[in-house]
Amino acid sequence: MKELDLLKKDWKKNADSFEQISEIEIYNMIHKKSSSTVKWILIISILEVMFWTVSNYFSNIDDILQKINHPEIVLFMEIMMYVNYAVILAFIYFFYKNYKTITITVSTKILMQSILKTRKTVQYYVWYNLGIVVISSILSFFIGYVYNPDMALIREKLALNGKAMLVSVITMVLITLLFVGFFWCIYRLVYGTLLRRLYANYKELKKIDF
């Protein structure tokens, strides 16, 4: 009987050991998946900046700004562009910092905190970009309508027709909403998928009790 009790105690010790190893393996798997997900967030954000940089290079925005012949507006747009790049680069730096933190951490608690921090940073990044889309659309319509000499005849006609002016404003609002909706769908598809993966990892980590 004594031998049976000793055998049971030994089995319980081994069972606890196997459970601990299993949890460590689960942690390592989640750690690897989280690191990979944050790395993709970093890569996609860099590719996004490169895409917009190349797009601006091949666009005719500079020609339009020169046509309106208002140096103060050109200066304002340039300052806005540099500020936007500075903010985007700051976000990319935070993405890189979060990636490094998640990659080297060996603590479940720190990994969970880093996942939540990364999710919050990405959400701020998405909302910032959507805000820039709204501001850029409004500025583009306003500058094009008020300062573009090619719009002079249209401005005169709209000034004499209140209904046509209202229709034009509603059209611009709808176009802006379409732009915002389009980019929101893209961000939700790309970054939203990555954030859902991160949150799934976070919920799995909460189940682990070291």
Automatic annotation (TrEMBL):
Organism per entry: Flavobacterium gyeonganense
Domain of life per record: Bacteria
Sequence intervals crossing the membrane: 40-59, 79-96, 125-147, 167-187
Protein's name in the database: Beta-carotene 15,15'-monooxygenase
UniProt KW keywords: Membrane, Transmembrane, Transmembrane helix
The keyword Transmembrane is annotated on this UniProt entry: yes
